[in-house]
Structure formats: structure tokens, C-alpha cells
Amino acid sequence: MHRLRLATDADVRFLADVTLAATGAQGRLPADFDEAAWRDRFAEWTRESIEDPGTELYVIEVDDVGAGRLRVSRTAEFVEVNGIQLHPEVQNRGIGTAIFTVLQSEAARSGVPLKVNVERDNPDARRLYDRLGFVKIGEEGGEDVLEWSKAAEQNRLWNADVAERYDTPGVGMFAEDVLGPTVQRLAQLADGGRALEFAIGTGRVAVPLSEYGVPVSGIEFSDAMLEQLRTKADADTIPVVTGDMATARIPGEFTLVYLVYNTIANLLTQEEQVACFRNAARHLSPGGRFVIELWVPELRRLPPGVPATVGTADPGYILLDTYDVLKQHVVSHHFHFGEGTDAQLFRTPHRYIWPAELDLMAQLAGFTLESRHADWTTTEFTADSPSHVSVYRLPS
Ligand SMILES: C[S@@+](CC[C@H](N)C(=O)[O-])C[C@H]1O[C@@H](n2cnc3c(N)ncnc32)[C@H](O)[C@@H]1O
């Protein structure tokens, strides 16, 4: 178990020791390294950091024992890691990844990027940042400047290629027997008012709902998905704000907010999912509804010791879901292939949610559950239903 605690003057020596141990183990200390002079400069700089109101200097503790050093600055424009060192004895245990994941989630919540500089002679650190989705945005001396943002990550995930292949008119999720009942039920739940779709995508539902007579607006992160929507409906017909459905605001008051096709699970932390419910409530008039379409986690299909399930194995397409049950994460691996041996892989990470947890999130945002059905035609929801359409309502 690791935890962070704010450093004090009493930690200066430890912080120097751990920095030396980490840098030395990577073979990155210069041949003419003057340890005494370095320790004096480091101590002075550490004391300044402890007093600096814009910076937090932490001791990373593992099992209650000091094991690392972390320095973070926070401004209105970004969160920045100004240094992280872990003692060699605790490296490769996922502690760095866990710390950065928490900081990514903090940055996402604040709607700002997370920045870090990495020395060009530190390939281990660079590999970690690449894996976490950081991209290089510049150079400073011997360092690369890296940045991660939720918007950039979603744009990478939902890029032009994916957006162009997304629509399958008349087939699959675009089939009339899927969209017809969806649109009719949403129109009924909008109750004569305006609807807002979170993560509107290419307008799979929004376009036919708008054509059905319900005024629809949207929030969407991906520019490429939005570009596809714009080939079907202009900004006067379906206004869209580019942003995060957990935080972004769009003008107007709505009687219905809806979030379909399992997309609440694209928010990867419980905090962001709760924020999404609160954001829905903010956009609704009294008595307004928030509708969620979501699958029921398929953990019953996981045999002990097997971390993955095969969702589909059709000619040309295989869906493999890999689970991290501790984080409540599932990554869907979509393999598309033809006759030959080549395949295309598209991966989407999700945080799965049980119906009961979803209801609690709703409660935190002031909603109560009005109905839960197995589908858009109000089929009864049972213990065997693979997914559900849940309707939450604000008090009138
Ligand atoms: C599976 S698609 C669903 C699109 C559409 N709702 C539909 O039913 O076809 C997921 C969409 O969610 C968007 N998305 C993911 N996370 C988002 C977020 N935090 N805020 C806004 N849009 C997001 C993606 O860009 C993508 O367009």
C-alpha cells in the first residue's frame, strides 16, 4: 500500500537519499558527481519547495515507510509533476502508474492538462508516460515536455478513422428496430420539452430524435465524431458544445438528458461518473429526467483465474473483454479482420457499474429511480437481463 504525505523540513535528508538512490540505480549520475555540493543545493531547493504555496512536495510512503519523492504544482491552467523518484526497491510495483492515474483523474476533474518533463536519457520513465497516454508537446534543454489531457485522449480514441467507420445505416445499432423504439421512448420521456444528449457522437440517436420533433442539443469530446454529425445536421438544428459530459455546460434548460450505448462507462473513475450525474441534474428543469442505457457487468461469465471473456466471435469480428476487478475496469478489444492474416484492433476502456451503484450515484445528484427496463420497449428487467434502460427523475 502506498500513500502520499506532505513533506516537512525533517524530510530533507530522506528526500535527498531517495533521489540519489533512484538516479544512481538508473546509472544517470555524472562521473564527476560532487555529492556534498549537490546535497547542499538540494536541501536549499527542497526547503524553498516546502514553503512555495504553488507547489506540493510529498513523501511517497510504502507500507508506512518513506520510499519516494513527488513534487506537484497546480495552477488554473494545468497540473504539473515537477519530479517523481521511487526507491529502486519499490519500483516496478505499479506505484508510479497509480500516482499518475490519480493525478490524471484530478486534472480531468479540473478540466486541465497534466504535464511532466522527462529527461531524454531516461527511457524507463518515458515508457511509463507513453503507456499512460502522454504525448510530447515540446523540448526544454535535455528534457521532453509531455502532456496528457482527457480531451486529447478521447480525440485519439474517437479519431477520424473510427468516426468515419462508426455509422452503419440500417444495420446493428443503426437498425430501425433498435433506433425506432429508442427514439419513441426518449420522445415520450422528454414530455414535450427539450432533450440533451451527453456524448452525442455522430448523432445516431440525436438526428432521428430531432427529426421526430424533439429539439436536441449535445455535449461531445471528439471533434471527428462531431464532424460526422455535422454532415447530417447543422449547428442550428442540433447545437453541440465540445467538452466533457462530466463538467461541460450548454445553455438552455432541458426536460430530458440522456446517455446511451453504455457511454457513462467511458468515464473511468467513480468520481467522474458521479460528476456526470450532477452535470445532468444541473441542466434539467424540476421534474426532469436523466436516462441511462447501460449493460449489466458480466462478471458471472468469468471463471476463477480467467481475466477475460469472449463477447463475440463472428467471421471478421472478435470482441474480447479483459477485466481488472479491483479497479472495476474492463477493456473491450475489438478485432476486425478479413480473409488474410492481418487484423485491426480498436480498444476502449470502461469502468463498469452495477445497477445498484448507478442508483446511488443518482441519489447523490438528487435523482430517484423512476423506472428500469431491460430495453427501450419497456420489457421487464430481470436477473438475466444483459442491459437496462434506467430513468432517473428530479423532484418536481
Ligand atoms: C459509443 S459512442 C456513443 C455515441 C452516441 N451516443 C451513440 O449512441 O451512438 C461514445 C461517444 O462518447 C464520446 N465521449 C466519451 N467520453 C466522453 C466525455 N467524457 N465527454 C463527452 N463525450 C465523450 C466519444 O467521443 C464518442 O463519441
TrEMBL record:
Alphabetical list of Gene3D superfamilies matching this protein: 3.40.630.30, Vaccinia Virus protein VP39
Domain of life: Bacteria
Name of the protein described by the UniProt record: GNAT family N-acetyltransferase
Signal peptide: none
InterPro entries: Acyl_CoA_acyltransferase (IPR016181), GNAT_dom (IPR000182), Methyltransf_25 (IPR041698), SAM-dependent_MTases_sf (IPR029063)
Gene Ontology MF terms in the entry: acyltransferase activity, transferring groups other than amino-acyl groups
Domain N-acetyltransferase: 2-153
Record has Transferase as a keyword: yes
Organism (species): Kribbella sindirgiensis
Record key words, sorted: Transferase
